[in-house]
Amino acid sequence: MWMLFLVVLVLAAVNAVNNRLAPGLYVPVCVTTAALLVLIARLSGLTADDLGLGRDTVRRGLRWGLILAAAVVTVYLAGLAVPFTRDVFQDRRAAGLTVGELVYHALVRVPLGTVLLEEIAFRGVLWAMLERRWGHLWATALSSFLFGLWHVLPSRGLTRANAAAAAVFGTGPAGVTLSVVTAVAVTALAGVLLCELRRRSGSLIPPMALHGALNSTGYVLAWAAGRWWGSP
Known about the structure:
mainly alpha, 11 helices
């Protein structure tokens, strides 16, 4: 049990480092933390298969991952093409990036930072530790709840950066609070989906592929939307 608490403590500390103390070190902090969490998991007796990192599931995981990534790109392009949903892509955080910064975010920061750490942590290590102790239903529920809480700090600026969020929630204190609560709930639900993908495939590759496609493609299309239709 103490290994589980150690993992949660490490994640809480890293969340503060990434969002408040040293955001410029995001990628190296995420990579180092992911390696540390895998080490903790292995010391607790979990195998590579338990963590969704086994060799036997790689081929199946890749098939799932390619299908999921293609589906995300298709849905995103359809959403960008329709004026009614186009405001969702109007995001100052992406629109203000240079081409070099966009490439860095889409191909380095997202896959080697966000996706690697969050999938290793929440669908790999935490899920496996919880599943071993209480079964897959509790593992999915608790890891997804913690995944939602993980997004409290980064979602605080959502209404300032995203035009659609500002239109829905407003930019006042009440709107910020409601947007954070909504973001936590939505990411917790997303965590349930990602956990189920991990459970059914036996691999971390499908949730990694879906997560990466959602974030990286979102950056690229939000950047494009800011140039084609004007920044919010």
